[in-house]
Amino acid sequence: QKEVEQDPGPLSVPEGAIVSLNCTYSNSAFQYFMWYRQYSRKGPELLMYTYSSGNKEDGRFTAQVDKSSKYISLFIRDSQPSDSATYLCAMSHEYNFNKFYFGSGTKLNVKP
Amino acid sequence: GAVVSQHPSRVICKSGTSVKIECRSLDFQATTMFWYRQFPKQSLMLMATSNEGSKATYEQGVEKDKFLINHASLTLSTLTVTSAHPEDSSFYICSAPQRSGNSYNEQFFGPGTRLTVL
Fold first, then answer.
1. Per-residue pLDDT tens digits for A74-92
2. What values do phi and psi take at A82, rounded to 5?
3. In 3-state terms, what secondary structure has residue B100?
4. Which residue, among B43, B113, B116, would best test binding to A if mutated, counting the most A CBs under 10 Å from its CB?
């Protein structure tokens, strides 16, 4: 079983839709939860990070962590064609923060 | 944010040759850098942790003699794929952490190097 599971998609939505991206994980020791966006043939760029459980909002993006369910989500409101990319979740432990465990990524296509 | 560069961005080589990939932190120092590989439609898999001035730490299943890592300065780590074979073809990405305003260390990723071994 992979430590981090993520539906690879692809996910296709019309412009303006609300997008929900999710990851599940098995290791209860994860404390840092990140969402990265990766455009084709580029390195990932950080969108949001959350420490432990809770919600975090940044503009059109909201990250949620439910540690009891080992489930994290990223919501994108008013999605734009420029949001089309692969979204990767990543997690790490408190004691070895720099070692990231990535999901496989969900490919999102926002149609104009 | 901080910038991490990689060179080359793309390399095609014959089987049996060695290929060196550079990872540089352009505007900050990084005592630690990380090397990942990514196969198409798959996740990033951590290969090794590069430590400035000391030996790299490899993840289980990664051959240290195959993937040589040198972290000679606080801004440069190199990954050399020795005697490359077609199965080594992949997208190699490095990252370097930098402390942000709070206690969080943000990882900055390079743009990646696509290696194709013929």
1. 999 999 999 999 999 999 9
2. -70, -10
3. coil
4. B43
Mapped to the 3 state alphabet, what secondary structure does B33-98 carry? EEEEEECCCCCEEEEEEEECCCCCEECCCCCCCCEEEEEEECCEEEEEECCCCHHHCEEEEEEEEE
Concatenated DSSP letters of A38-82? E-TTS--EEEEEEESSEEEEETTEEEEEETTTTEEEEEESS--GG
Q: What is the pLDDT of residues B24-64, one digit of tens each?
A: 999 889 989 999 999 887 888 999 999 988 899 999 999 99
Q: Is the pLDDT of residue A70 over 70?
A: yes
What percentage of chain B carries pLDDT values higher than 90?
Answer: 73
A98 touching chain B per CB within 8 A: yes
Q: Is the link from the previous residue into A10 a cis peptide, with omega within 30 of 0?
A: yes
